[in-house]
Write a structure and sequence with these properties.
The structure is a single chain. By secondary structure, this protein is mainly alpha-helical. Helices cover 59% and strands 2% of the residues. The protein contains 9 helices and 2 strands. Strands 1-2 form a two-stranded antiparallel sheet. Strand 1 and strand 2 form a beta hairpin. Helix 5 packs across helix 6. It is globular.
């Protein structure tokens, strides 16, 4: 009986193929390595040069790091930093996609072309870009420039959030997790998790939600839409 190592059937086939060809994968390396028990719980802080601060033992909830943070604050900070890194990775890919679309619209990327104009016009509608009777490449250029604003926007709400169900939007506003701009949330996440800044675990976790939403409803959706286009 074969051992199922991942939930995805396709990924499982890839892993089995790699095994047949004597190739080591991340699954193999994970099985060999024993995780650090402190790091696995997020109970180790390496944010500043005065650490690492370790929260171990039966009374770790009573321990305070150099900056005064307790284990809950440290775990929340570590989680938010991982989310910020993931958002940066996804969204920076989306940024390059935006610049590719802009280059196509300006005739600067001869190896790429727009194939789904219907999707482009649909996206233009989401972004408030007029397209009826206009030059198609001018529409594409304005869409790309609007997308760039998703990254640089400092206040307000990301435009793509208006595609979410109304009740969901209301819930996000109520909880205060509506992202303002992709880059803004990533920068603030790193700022708030620095030594001596935010030490409220609940407030830090609200940053997790806001930064994650900036990724999902920002960078990921932008990249997907441009790929379709």
């Amino acid at each position: 009986m074969k051992t199922i190592k991942v939930a995805s059937e396709v990924s499982q086939q890839v892993i089995e193929w790699a095994e047949e060809h004597k190739m080591e994968t991340c699954i193999d390396r994970a099985a060999k390595l024993k995780p650090c028990p402190l790091g696995e719980e997020g109970a180790c802080c390496k944010v500043c040069h005065m650490g690492p601060c370790r929260f171990a033992g039966a009374k770790k909830e009573e321990v305070r790091g150099v900056c005064g943070a307790d284990v809950d604050t440290v775990a929340a900070r570590n989680f938010l930093r991982m989310v910020a890194a993931g958002t940066a990775a996804h969204s920076d890919h989306a940024r390059d996609m935006v610049f590719t679309l802009l280059a196509v619209a300006r005739g600067e990327a001869k190896d790429f072309e727009i194939k789904d104009w219907k999707k482009l016009y649909r996206v233009a509608g989401f972004l408030g870009v007029e397209f009826e009777g206009r030059d198609r490449m001018k529409v594409a250029e304005e869409v790309a420039l609007k997308y760039i604003e998703h990254f640089t926007q400092q206040k307000g709400e990301l435009p793509y959030f208006h595609r979410a169900p109304k009740k969901t939007q209301e819930r996000w506003r109520k909880w205060g997790v509506m992202p303002r701009g992709i880059d803004r949330e990533i920068v603030e996440a790193l700022h708030r998790t620095n030594i001596g800044v935010d030490e409220d675990p609940e407030n830090i976790m609200s940053g997790v939600a806001r930064t994650g939403l900036a990724d999902g409803w920002g960078g990921c959706m932008i990249s997907t839409d441009i790929t379709d286009i």
